[in-house]
Write a structure and sequence with these properties.
The structure is a single chain. The protein starts with 7 loop residues before the first helix and ends in an 8-residue tail after the last strand. Strands 5-4-3-6-7-9-8 form a 7-stranded mixed beta sheet, sandwiched between helices. It has a two-stranded antiparallel sheet with strand order 1-2. The protein folds into 2 domains: 8-71; 80-286, Vaccinia Virus protein VP39 (Rossmann fold, 3-Layer(aba) Sandwich), CATH 3.40.50. Helix 8 (155-167) links the parallel strand 4 (147-152) and strand 5. The chain is elongated and about 70 Å long. The protein is α/β, with parallel strands linked by helices. The longest helix has 15 residues, at 56-70. It has helices at 8-21, 27-39, 43-48, 56-70, 75-79, 102-111, 128-141, 155-167, 199-202, 207-210, 215-218, 226-235, 254-264, and strands at 81-84, 87-90, 118-122, 147-152, 173-176, 187-192, 239-248, 266-273, 279-286. It has 13 helices and 9 strands. Helix 1 packs parallel to helix 4 (56-70) and helix 6 packs across helix 7. It binds glutamine (GLN). The site of glutamine has 13 residues, from helix 7.
Length: 294
C-alpha cells in the first residue's frame, strides 16, 4: 500500500505511537532517534520546520524500522551504531551492544594507564573497551608507547572490532582466541567484560537482549562465573608482576569474583560502582605469586 507523504512531525508522532502500542520502553526517544538517523536531522533542524514533508524513500525506511523496532530488534541493529565513551562504534548481531555500565571499566583503566603499557582485552566483541582506551589515550592522555591486543573467540566479532579500530584511527592487534589459548607474552593490564549472566537467567531477559545480543556474549555458565574462574586462573601466566586486572562484573558477583582473585594471587582489590550505584568493576593487582588454583 502506498502511503501519503507526511510531515516530519506527523511521521514522528505516528512512529512513537506505534512503538508505544508495541510496548517499547523508550518509545518516544527511539522514534526520535530513528527519525534523526533516517533524515540526518538534529533537534534544531526538526523544530525549525516540523511541517516539512519527508521524502518518500526516507518515509518508507522509517516505517520499516519502526516495524522492526516494534518486533524488539534493538535500535542499534537498525542504525548499526552505538556511542561509547563519546565515540561511535559500529555494531551488528555478532557483537554485544556496548553498554554505558562498561564505561566505568574504561574510566578505571584510564586512571591506571602508564607509558609503555601492554594491554590485553579478552572477549573484545565490538572492541569498545580496548579501542576507546587507546583512543582516549591518543586524544587526551598522550602517553607514549601504549599497545593493545583484543581477543575474541568469534571471527565475526573480530571483524567488527577491526572495523571500529580503523574507523577511529586506532592501531591495535586483534587475535582470534578462546580466552588465552592463542595469546603470547605478558601484559601490564588485562581488561575484560566477559559473558557473566547465569544461563537460566538469560531466558528472563528482555527480548532485545535475549534474542538479539549474541548468546555467547551473555552466557556465563550455570553460576555466571565460568569466565571469571578461567580468566583469573590462567591470567597469572600472562600478567606481569604488579600488573592490573580489571573486570566488569554483574552487580551481585563482587564478593565471589574478588575471592577468586585473591586466591589466585591478586591484591589491592577494589570495587567500583556504575552510575546506577551498583557494583560493576573489580580491580586487582597481581602480587607475582600464584597462591592456589581454584
Ligand atoms: N568487550 C565487549 C563489550 O564490553 C564485549 C563483551 C562481551 O561480548 N561479553 O561490549
Amino acid at each position: 500500500m502506498k502511503r501519503k507523504i507526511l510531515t516530519l512531525q506527523q511521521i514522528y508522532r505516528e512512529g512513537a505511537a506505534s512503538l508505544r502500542a508495541a510496548g517499547i520502553l523508550d518509545a518516544d526517544l527511539d522514534a526520535w532517534l530513528l527519525l534523526s538517523f533516517v533524515t540526518g536531522l538534529d533537534k534544531a533542524a526538526y523544530y525549525g520546520n516540523p511541517g516539512r514533508l519527508m521524502e518518500e524513500r526516507e518515509q518508507e525506511l522509517y516505517f520499516k524500522w519502526i516495524a522492526l523496532r516494534s518486533d524488539r530488534v534493538p535500535l542499534q541493529h537498525l542504525t548499526g551504531e552505538q556511542e561509547f565513551m563519546g565515540y561511535p562504534f559500529f555494531v551488528n548481531k555478532h557483537v554485544l551492544i556496548p553498554r554505558q555500565d562498561t564505561e566505568t571499566l574504561v574510566e578505571e583503566a584510564l586512571k591506571r594507564l602508564k607509558p609503555g603499557m601492554r594491554i590485553l582485552d579478552l572477549c573484545t566483541g565490538s572492541g569498545c573497551i580496548l579501542i576507546s582506551l587507546l583512543k582516549m589515550n591518543a586524544c587526551k592522555l598522550r602517553m607514549d608507547d601504549i599497545r593493545g591486543t583484543g581477543t575474541d573467540i568469534s571471527e565475526e566479532a573480530l571483524y567488527v572490532a577491526w572495523k571500529n579500530a580503523e574507523r577511529l584511527g586506532i592501531q591495535a592487534d586483534f587475535l582470534q582466541s578462546d580466552l588465552f589459548e592463542c595469546v603470547e607474552g605478558q601484559y601490564d593490564m588485562i581488561v575484560s567484560n566477559p559473558p557473566y549472566i547465569p544461563t537460566e537467567v538469560i531466558e528472563r531477559l528482555q527480548d532485545e537482549v535475549r534474542v538479539y545480543d549474541p548468546y555467547i556474549a551473555l552466557d556465563g555458565g550455570e553460576d555466571g562465573l565460568y569466565f571469571y574462574r578461567k580468566i583469573i586462573n590462567d591470567s597469572v601466566q600472562y600478567i606481569k608482576k604488579e600488573g592490573v586486572l580489571l573486570f566488569e562484573i554483574g552487580h551481585d558477583q563482587g564478593q565471589a569474583v574478588s575471592f577468586l582473585m585473591r586466591q589466585a594471587g591478586y591484591g589491592k582489590i577494589q570495587m567500583k560502582k556504575d552510575l546506577a550505584g551498583l557494583d560493576r568493576v573489580l580491580i586487582g593487582s597481581y602480587n607475582g605469586k600464584e597462591s592456589r588454583k581454584c
